[in-house]
Amino acid sequence: MARRVKQEGVIWFFETITKNAKQYNLIRTFFPNTIALLNGREVYEIPNMGAQWQYALSKDFVTMPSNVFNSDWFKEHFPKASEYKSFISGTCAIADLLNKRYSFRDMVKELYLQDYQKVGNQLHFHDLITLLYAVNTEFFIIDSATNQRMLKYEDYRLMNKDQFSVMISLADMKYGNVFRDILSFNGDAIDINSLQATNKLRTFFGKTEAIISQIDKTRLDFQKKQEKLDNAEEKDWRYSVYNVYSTLNQLFTLFADTTVMSRKVVSAQRALKVTGEVYEIYNLINMKNFSGAVQNTITLLDSLFYGNNTNSYNISKATLNTLAEKTNGKIVTRIDGEIGQYCALLNTIRVSGKAASPKDSTALRKDTALAHHFGAKVNINGSDTTISFRKSSQMAALIFTNDREAIQLIRRLAAFLNDAALAQTDHQLSKVVESYALPPGSYKRKRGNWYSFDINAFAGIYGGYELLAGRRCDNGWVYGLSVPVGLSFSKTFGKKMLEKDTLTSDEILNPGKVKSYGKRVYRRRALTATITASIIDIGAVVSYRMGPSPDSILPQQVKWSQVISPGLSLGLSIPGTPLVGMLGVQYTPMLRNFKDTDEQYNTFRFYLACMMDLPLANLWERRRIVR
Questions:
Q1: Cα separation values, 65 from 95, 201, 283, 396, Å
Q2: If pLDDT is split at 50, 70 and 90, which confidence band does 426 have?
Q3: pTM of the model
Q4: Mean pLDDT across 62-66
Q5: Closest CA to 209 of 140, 147, 263, 162
Q6: What Cα–Cα distance (Å) separates residue 396 from each residue in 262, 312, 317, 532, 538?
């Protein structure tokens, strides 16, 4: 029976993952190969998690940053993604080439030869690659009869001002003025005739050479170490500050020195910082810390969305329509429909060439009233319609509930997949699956849901009044220990948000803490009510009466029928604790035994109790509500 329970729990666990993947496209974006394998099995089959699964898991984790940041989801949710896309894509491309064991010089050459589309006057990642390619290709000196080496800081210092100026000017002309586009002095156009500027640039190029040399050295050392570990069938889980990704990041950090960078580079400092964060993600992947890599990816997404300078978010009418379909929320669909009516009526007024009548103005206000109620503003610019709202508004809670819920699921799923990918034997893998498939229950899980249906136990003390069938004169007050076990249904209460209220950071990152119902958004409160239909009471046989009584403290004969004690209770959680205050009634057969007879009597007990909430298994839960 225990084995069968585990098997069914494992099947249920994987079926839940499959259902979530079908509901949330973002999960498939993070783990496409693993989800494809899950979808390719029968629902009653337990995945064997063999070589095919190990390959799919490792491939998903290694390609995860590229899959996420180049996905349609990223473009859809980050209108300003163009500011970061070239830097993120370039970083992912470098990581891919590094995995293929390219040298640094070959990586830069490969990226330099790739075509790219420049967006406006923004700094593009390819501009940095062009500068590095020029340094790699042009700034060399004959070291011996057969060898060349890159110019070092000492070589730059040996040049006089004219030699240095000519070298930079010729390289700038050859590579499309990339030096003048990137390098500067105190934010002004570069002046290579200035001694102070020249010294700054000498230092910059000297640091560039030193880091490039370190990159190749670190890369070769890393490869040798990995080959040695692989031959010994060992793995290295330790973090080293000198690993290759950290060294690569040091190179691009040079462009953060605003004293020698143009205004174009200075304005792209956030994008350069994102580059370092992506390198850290690959660094974690390289250390087989897949769960940490997923967490850092999510943190980066959060910082791009919630951490940039603007506090507003704009989506198109088409995007709103798509998101309305994804959320399955009636309120979002109504907002989408009303804005559509607004646009249609406004267009009719414009075509007529007449000013809006009072009746039309009233209709326009009505058509956008629901959107305004949740903190959104409708903007019409010709044929384009956009909806803008603050990222902490109630509108954001409605629109992005699905995505925030998907991210929470990905956080939990990443931990399981990480442990599954690192399992070395079938026994270890089996333990990993069981530990995640059969998680221990917790009162916090119940109170973290709006609704929950559980197999539940309670343990604590009670006090109340007891009625005895057949001996009414012996009715009396009782107290004791009770451990009822049965089925419980729980509801967590919410507090209505006012129109002016905004979301907290915690509510933004945890969408289950707010719900939309009708025209209102509710905050989850720390108060949960539970109705329990108990079936057995393990503590029934040790219950005893208050005060002197002719009955014995315990029944002389203990039977299973005394444990089967059906009852009904209503409990209210005590916030911040696992305790529950309960009011209930319970029937216990053959509990009381009296000295003047061998017969054991049935009892009805009406009681108040303080119990420890002990959920045993969750059967159903509702974490979020959007209606």
A1: 10, 34, 12, 25
A2: low
A3: 0.74
A4: 89
A5: 140
A6: 37, 10, 15, 36, 48
